[in-house]
Amino acid sequence: MNNVQKIIIALTGLAVSGSAFAYIDPGTGSILLQGLLAGLAAVAVAGKVFWLRIKSFFTRKSGDKPEDQ
Amino acid sequence: MTSIAEEDYKFVRESGLITELIDSEKLLPETVLDPAEHIELDDNAVYVLEHPRLEAVSYPYEWSFPLLKSAALHQLEILLESLKYGVTLSDATAYNIQFKGVRPFFIDHLSFRKYEAGEYWGGHKQFCDQFLNPLLLRSLLGVPHNSWYRGSLEGISSEELSPLLKWRHKLKIGVLTHVVLQAKLQTRAKVKTVSKKALARPLPLKSLQHILEGLRSHITSLSPKDKEKSVWENYTEEHSYDDQETLEKKNFIAEFAQAIHAPVAWDLGCNTGEYSQVLLENGINYVVGFDYDQGALEQAYARADANNLNLLPLFFDAANPSPDQGWAQLERAGFKTRTNAKAMIALAFIHHLSIARNIPLAALVSWLVRIAPNGVIEFVPKEDPMVQELLRFRKDIFPDYNESHFQETLEKSASIVKKKVISKSGRVLYWYSVDS
Hints:
Chain A has helices at residues 3-15, 28-62. By secondary structure, chain A is mainly α. In chain B, the strands form four sheets. In chain B, strands 9-8-7-10-11-13-12 form a seven-stranded mixed sheet, sandwiched between helices. In chain B, strands 1-2 form a two-stranded antiparallel sheet. A two-stranded antiparallel ribbon of chain B has the order 3-6.
């Protein structure tokens, strides 16, 4: 048994509940997809932070007037 | 419930989620009983829960598109709500949803467990197989899910659906990710070793909620490809008038319903649920409707939804009803096993089986009366334009299909309480009762 099989079995074990009739097969494709979506979300968040920094850099530069006007 | 699930049980109950879901009528109520008094169930039980009995049990392969869609949205809502309480669901099976009328209820009280930070959604694939993909089959390709689902029971996998899609279907992000990409990743994982790192990345709660909300808005937007949305929303306009024949039929059904006063009645060939509604308005508490026409079922759904009726319209082919199937053929009960009606009606129904499907009239009648001890069967004579339509392209090989033969066979297994001719073409309503 290789590591991947072990991980898959471990994940399957986690997801199975006590009932004999509650079938579940998480499926490697599903797990990989969720990992990918999590990664994409992280990239999106990082991108957003980066973009806000750029935006604030420029707004500070051009914004000579005080904020309360 | 045994000690294996005790810890999760306590955590989930203490979180307040169960009370909230029961109060908002999203989860079936529960009563906690003393295990010592129910030792016959399981002598290792630490908790015994009792739930109210449902009037009807149904399965996703018997649901119309709007029922499956509403079950899918309900499943997502339960999980999103649970996450707010630090709870998740151990699976996402469609068999955990049942209906009261057309209102979905979650029924698996033991699939709630503690959510661990960063964990993956264990039910994702199951959700796609059992809800998303069957809905997409109809929505993108115009093919109803019922026959395929009945054959596979666990739904339609992304690997099966993906090759059927055209490139334009794949432009939608929900289809691209959950169907196409998932199928690709699944296929690749079979031949290529997946790195440990790829499986070890945590899924933040926000990302999980984002996936669930994305699925929710995608599914909300789905409608059958072969139908305009408005079709099942406009049923009242199509049936707003009552001609004399319909009125007489309705009066007869109303009189029958008032006399029988059954808790549950079955309406075979329910069409848009017009006569189911008459039953409900005249003392029957719950009606399960059966029909094989998807359009009619969708209109019946709309009728039940708009009028808040205790009507559950299900997909059903009388010549081939749902069998006992699944594990040991005990897991999903068939149509016959679930028969619990005290009353039934079969209006404009028998000619579809007798003429169109070659079921001998005598066999059909004896099958019908075994469904419920009281009922109304409409006999539609050969001269009727609807029967003529069925005979248009085929030879009339039905010498026995006539009213006297019908009455004769009916009287063999039941007594006739009342009969009434309701149309010029000679349609007759027979009210029967099986002597117990």
